[in-house]
Every structure is written in C-alpha cells, then in structure tokens.
Amino acid sequence: MLKYILKRIALAIATFFIIMTIIFVLIKLLPNPIQAVPGGMDKALADMREAWGYNKPIMVQYGIFLKNILTKWDWGFCTTMGTFLQPVTQYLASKLPATIYINIFSYILSLPLGIFFGIIAAIHKNKWQDHVIQVFIMFFISVPSFVYAFLLQYFVGFKFNLCPLIFKGGNDYFTWAMFHSAIMPILSLSFGPIASNMRLIRAELTETLTSEYMLLARTKGLTKSQATFRHAFRNSLVPLLPSFLADILGILGGSMIIEQIFAIPGIGQTYLLAFNNKDYSVFMALNMFYVGIGLLAGIITDLSYGIIDPRIHVGGNKSNEL
After folding, report:
1. Which of helix, strand or coil describes residue 87?
2. What's the number of CA atoms in the CB half-sphere (13 Å) around residue 49?
3. Which residues touch 213 (CB under 8 Å, ≥6 apart)?
4. CA-to-CA dists, residue 101 to 98, 145, 173, 251, angstroms
5. 3-state secondary structure at position 77
6. Which residues pair with 87 in a beta bridge?
7. Of 20-34, 48-62, 304-318, which has the strongest mean pLDDT?
8. pTM for this structure?
9. CA atoms within 13 A on the CB side of 208
10. DSSP tag of 31
11. Maximal CA-CA distance, the chain
C-alpha cells in the first residue's frame, strides 16, 4: 500500500509538471497584452520583467519561473487585473473565500437530500415514489445549472423579489444579508449534485437490498427498516464514499458560469476574467490550481477504496492475492 501511495504521488507530481510546462510554453507564445501601464509604474514593471527574465529565451524564463515557485511560492504578478503588480497568490487568496462559501452550502444541501431521496427510491423501487424521483433525476441531470440560475433569477429574484439578484460580496460571511444573497447560487449549484447522488444511492442500494445477506438478516428477525439501515445502507456507501470525498475538493474550484451570472467574486469568475483580460500570470496559476485539484482528487479517490473497505487491496498483484 505504501509503495502504491508513493507511486501515485510521484506520477501526480510528474503529470503536474508536464502540464505546467506545456501551458507555460503556450502562454509565452502569445503576444504581450500590456500596451500601457499606470502612471509612474513603468520602471517597476521593467524591473519585474527583468527579474522574471521576460526578455530572455522561453526555457530560461521557465527555469526562473520554477525557481520562484519552488523557493518562494511566487507565481508572478497581476498585469491587467486587480491591483497592478499585485502578487498572484495574494490576489487569488482574496478570491477563494467567496467560492468556498457558496460551494460549502451547496455541498451541505445536496449530499443529505441526494442520499435521502435515493434511499426512498430504492426502498420503493418500481412504485410511484420511485417513478416520481426518477423523473426529477432525469430532469435535474439533463438541464445545465445556468438554466436553473436564470429561472431562479427571473422568478425568485425578479418576479417575487424574495432574494437579491446578485451576490452581496464583501467579507461579512456570517451575516444574514450575505447568506440571503447566496441562496439562489447555492440552489443553482445544488440541483445537479442532488440528482447525481440520488441516482448513485438508488442504484447501489437497490442492488444491495437483493443480496443474500439481506435475506439472512431478515430471517434472523430484523425488520425491513433495521436490515436496510444496519446492513444495506452501510454496505452501499462503500463504493460511493470515495466520490463524496473527491467532491469536497471540488468545493475549491467553484463554478465559472454560476459565479459569472450572480457576480460572485470567486475563483471561477476570476478564471474567465483572466482569460478575457489576457492576464497570463493569473491564468497560469489558476490552470495549475485546477490541475492540482483534479490530481489530488484522483489520488484520494483511489486510496479511499482501500481504507474504507479492507477487502480491497489497492495496487496489489494478482500473484500476491492468489
């Protein structure tokens, strides 16, 4: 297991640096977006470009870029976004709280609701409850989240004036005004995950309820509800928990479209702004941020299988198992 963990980490690090190299070279082939700078900042910009080796060959620039990251965790400076010449890490750190705030509430809402209705559908398989839930699953999975966002904005925000049309912003995250402005984006992000969780729970629990050990549990005197929650539900969660753990990392990524619609000053909106404004340092850092989240989620998902269910030997050889 230890050997497998080290191997996966090494492969993830290698993949991270290969992708970073490709993105860096492609970005450096693009034209310089800076045509003019704020008054009095010309010398500061020239000094920064010299320190980063922007006037040298690409591979020399990449060497300086890697050295700054590994020694100082310095990803460069903003050029067309935020405060001019503000460090990228400082700028992005100011955007993370809004993204985490929205996505944590979305996750808290979608996980229990998805599990609850998935259990209802599995217990009442092929009955009217199951058919109704199946219709909702197909609808919520098929329709993109930004459609829900527009519908909520029109009916909840505009027609009935129940919630603000856009996110409040600011740093007062523990106030009713902030949460009130976040209700619509939270709901927009929750519908899809709720449907996905319902579908997964229903499929796994339906299969578990028909297994032989469930029949044995009933013959030993357990009621249907006792057998379902003591045995079937717990066992059906084994293949699902890794995906739930990986989804937690997705909280950091945010949603580009939803954040843009509701004017949420988070990571997702910043990614689009960096692309449109040609702020290459911010765009580079965000690309690697998403790559790192994806790689880490993959490692956690694989390793959690072996931790959750000891019967699973991750990375084991068939010869050892035999």
Report:
1. strand
2. 13
3. 231
4. 5, 18, 8, 9
5. strand
6. 77
7. 20-34
8. 0.82
9. 25
10. P
11. 84
